[in-house]
TrEMBL record, chain A:
InterPro entries named in the record: ATP-dep_Glu-Cys_Ligase-2, DUF403
Organism this protein belongs to: Azoarcus taiwanensis
Domain DUF403, residue spans: 1-310
Name of protein: DUF403 domain-containing protein
Residue ranges that the Swiss-Prot or TrEMBL entry lists as coiled coil: none
Alphabetical list of Pfam families matching this protein: Alpha-E
Top-level division of the source organism's lineage: Bacteria
From TrEMBL, chain B:
The protein, known as: Circularly permuted type 2 ATP-grasp protein
PANTHER family: BLR5612 PROTEIN (PTHR34595), SLL1039 PROTEIN (PTHR34595:SF7)
Domain Circularly permuted ATP-grasp type span(s) in chain numbering: 73-448
Species, as recorded: Azoarcus taiwanensis
Gene3D superfamilies: 3.30.1490.270, 3.40.50.11290
One Pfam family it belongs to: CP_ATPgrasp_2
């Protein structure tokens, strides 16, 4: 397959997954903001959302104070923000458009229809009707893309690069989501293990659709170590880091070429350390430090995959 | 209805329905009119969802428009098609013979009716092709010949498109759409199928591979996703099951062309290129082009790769060469042309210019190198100011223009705001030339949606129809 084609497929999948994850993270924050809290807490929480996505600076150059509405505007509709839901869905569609011949018509039509609907969303109407239904919509469109991908695409290289894109992006997002908790301060007077603390951890679980999963797996109280274990090491949990890396590694092995051995080795090593890792060791080392280090490894793999398989091409900048 | 001055595909001069439209007219009577409106809306929604759109140059980058699709088919009876088929094959055969000749012996320039400077001084003539041998002596592998009907069995060729003719994807998609919208209508007619086109195209491309290549790799070369015809490039690549490449995906080494794949370089043997000559190779043509492949021309000249269509084909479809095509048929094939040429005045000739200036209000004036319906004057439809404006241009650069009488393009019933009404149509059938010649029974019918308009180009508000060639 053409390197450029692989590149478009990979980015199509990453952007679609990213749109979903932004919706998830915003949804959690939105739900938390409905709890009784002071203005400064609310501001702090929305600020943390921007921080984990590395978007504090661009936000402040374009908007003034942090309010729920301004952050939602910036993260959902802002065409100038390359990481807004709108920009991601558009980028997914542009990448699909560039290789539409490689996609099944169902997958192309799904991706195209998602963008057409997003383009026509009216922000005023959205706030009247409640943003949660919008986040649901984004998640379902992403579910639909994935389902159509698995249900219609030939199991060849094209599918492998799509899957690598999906899981590398998801690994990145799972790590960032876990880090939200680190960035959040507990309200004054609250203690670790208290009700506000519980609420934050459970919101975090919900953001990765893992609240019920947690109950099922642990049948016990929510504790930070168990949440971290679920999100990092449980290979049966579809959004965990371990599952993501397993998928990345397995798909990489199928597309392997003459110069990809080192990339495969690093992916395999990472996968193995997750498979045999223990949460106690990670917690002892410090969860935040672990997350930062793991994000580095995910990024390294992304760079190496680009060098080994995907021709670095200068894509025309997306117009507003 | 007032008396028509043009031929209608469906109704004869007395308002009766022509034999080949009879079954359609019967069907139409049973169909309530709001049903047609509903079907058209359905077609629009489907085309949008499928992303069968085109970009319009000069508009915002986000703009992707649908080419309006009309739900009334254009029907051509078998006996008329038989004549068209013979005429089109004859014409394309002569055009290929002409191209081979001018890039080799130039017999037609020495002993024939065409003044040498008309060819050798033409911007589309590529000196670099002189003496280059191309597989099977085929230059114009894919030709989209624009034909209009003026009267009963009377077809005129407007243009021979031999560079990168587009529109075939609409021929295929329109048929799919009609079958989806009106399945039962197809049981009333024996419509010749067109859906084998991608197979036939692939076979043709493989048949012109460089000598000695037994299992050729074919690719489609596109300028990219922002090109107005990108949908078609992607569509054809997908339907043929070959790679859709951009210039940046390929490189040349030792007179062979390779594409960059996830598993390393892979040799390319035949390139169905949808990029104009000027942009194919920055080393040979426009140096600022990023759409091409450096060194491609050298590999081509050395016979390492086949390009379809050949570099330099454009000289044969140039409007200044067009008047000589009937002569080519006589010169190379020793036959009389089956299809008419539109009588054409060449404004570079003083006597023709004089005539054109005196009759501007009745003529269609075209730029010799223009395309897409841009930069032309349709005398009868133009305002006084537009005519005077053109008069100045003509006087300044007469050699840039040709003029033709305003043809009474035939009309075909078309579904417009007010219901069914006649609108003018043309027809672009596609002729494939490889080891043998083939013509799809069908083509792209373009329709001028504005009342009275004769301009069918999609960039100028034209639409398309499904074209039914009936089986005998």
């Amino acid at each position: 397959m053409l390197s450029r084609t692989a590149d478009h497929l990979y980015w199509m999948a990453r952007y679609m997954e990213r749109a979903e994850n932004i919706a998830r993270i915003l949804d959690v924050n939105h739900r938390m903001s409905l709890m009784p809290q002071s203005d400064s807490q609310a501001e702090q929480a929305w600020g943390a959302t921007l921080r984990i996505m590395g978007l504090e600076a661009p936000f402040h150059t374009r908007y003034g104070d942090i309010t729920a509405e301004s952050v939602l505007d910036f993260m959902i509709f802002d065409a100038q923000n390359p990481t807004s839901v709108r920009s991601c869905l558009r980028a997914a569609r542009e990448n699909a458009h560039a290789v539409r011949g490689t996609l099944t018509s169902e997958l192309w039509e799904t991706t195209n229809a998602t963008w057409l609907k997003m383009r026509d969303f009216d922000s005023d109407k959205l706030y009247d009707e409640g943003v949660s239904s919008f986040f649901e919509w984004v998640k379902f469109r992403s579910h639909l893309s994935r389902g159509v991908t698995l249900g219609t695409m030939l199991q060849d290289e094209a599918l492998r690069f799509i899957r690598i894109g999906t899981f590398l992006e998801r690994a990145d997002n799972t790590l960032r989501t876990l880090d939200v908790k680190y960035q959040l301060l507990l309200p004054a007077g609250e203690v670790e293990g208290g009700s506000a603390d519980f609420y934050q951890w459970s919101a975090l679980l919900r953001s990765v659709s893992a609240f019920e999963v947690y109950r099922k797996v642990y049948r016990d109280l929510i504790t930070p170590a168990r949440v971290a274990e679920l999100m990092l090491l449980r290979v049966d949990m579809p959004r965990s880091l371990a599952r993501c890396m397993k998928e990345v590694f397995n798909n990489l092995r199928v597309v392997s070429n003459d110069h990809s051995a080192e990339t495969e080795r690093r992916a395999g090593l990472f996968e193995a350390t997750l498979r045999y890792g223990r949460i106690e060791d990670i917690m002892r080392e410090g969860l935040h430090n672990y997350v930062v280090q793991a994000l580095g490894r995910v990024q390294d793999l992304g760079n190496r995959i680009a060098d080994d398989f995907l021709m670095p091409v200068s894509r025309p900048a997306l117009a507003a | 209805m007032s008396k028509r001055s043009f031929y209608d595909e469906m109704q004869d001069a007395t308002g009766g329905v022509r034999a080949h439209y009879k079954a359609y007219a019967d069907w139409l009577v049973e169909m309530p009119e709001d049903r047609l409106a509903q079907k058209r809306a359905e077609a629009d929604a489907l085309f949008h969802r499928h992303g069968i759109t085109f970009a319009v140059y000069g508009e915002k980058p986000d703009t992707e428009r649908l080419i309006p699709f009309d739900v009334v088919p254009r029907i051509i009876p078998a006996h008329e098609w038989a004549v068209l088929e013979r005429g089109l094959k004859q014409r394309v055969k002569a055009l290929n013979a002409f191209l081979r000749d001018i890039y080799h012996e130039q017999a037609i320039l020495k002993n024939g009716p065409i003044p040498a400077e008309q060819v050798l001084g033409n911007a589309q003539y590529r000196k670099v092709m002189q003496g280059v041998k191309v597989p099977g002596d085929v230059y114009a592998h894919i030709a989209g010949v624009d034909v209009v009907r003026a009267g009963e069995g009377e077809y005129y060729v407007l243009e021979d498109n031999l560079r990168v003719p587009s529109g075939v994807s609409y021929m295929l998609e329109n048929r799919k759409m009609m079958m989806r919208l009106f399945p039962r209508l197809f049981s009333r007619y024996r419509v010749a199928p067109v859906d084998r086109y991608p197979d036939i195209l692939l076979n043709m491309l493989r048949s012109v591979a460089p000598l000695g290549v037994t299992d050729p790799t074919v690719v489609v070369l596109t300028p990219g996703a922002y090109n107005s015809a990108y949908f078609e490039h992607a569509f054809l690549a997908q339907q043929m099951g070959v790679e859709l490449v951009e210039g940046q995906d390929m490189f040349v080494e030792a007179d062979h062309v390779y594409m960059r794949t996830t598993r390393g370089p892979k040799r390319v043997d035949v390139i169905y290129r949808r990029v104009d000559d000027d942009f194919l190779d920055p080393l040979a043509f426009r140096a600022d082009s990023v759409l091409g492949v450096p060194g491609l021309l050298a590999a081509y000249q050395a016979g390492g790769v086949t390009l379809a269509n050949a570099i330099g084909s454009g000289v044969a479809d140039d409007k200044s060469i067009y008047p000589y095509v009937p002569d080519m048929v006589r010169f190379y094939l020793d036959e009389e042309p089956i299809l008419h040429n539109v009588p054409t005045r060449m404004c570079r000739k003083p006597e023709d210019l004089e005539y054109v200036l005196a009759n501007l209000a009745d003529l269609v004036v075209k730029e010799v190198h223009g395309a897409g319906g841009y930069g032309m004057l349709v005398g009868p439809a133009a305002t006084k100011a537009e005519i005077e404006d053109f008069r100045d241009k003509l006087k300044q650069h007469p050699e840039r223009y040709i003029a033709q009488p305003t043809l009474a393009l035939s009309s075909c019933p078309t579904f417009v705001e007010a219901g069914l009404a006649p609108r003018h149509v043309d027809l672009r059938p596609f002729v494939l030339s490889g080891e043998e010649m083939q013509l799809m029974p069908g083509g792209l019918t373009r329709v001028a949606l504005r009342e009275g308009s004769l301009v069918v180009n999609s960039s100028q508000g034209g639409g398309t129809k499904d074209t039914w060639v009936l089986e005998a």
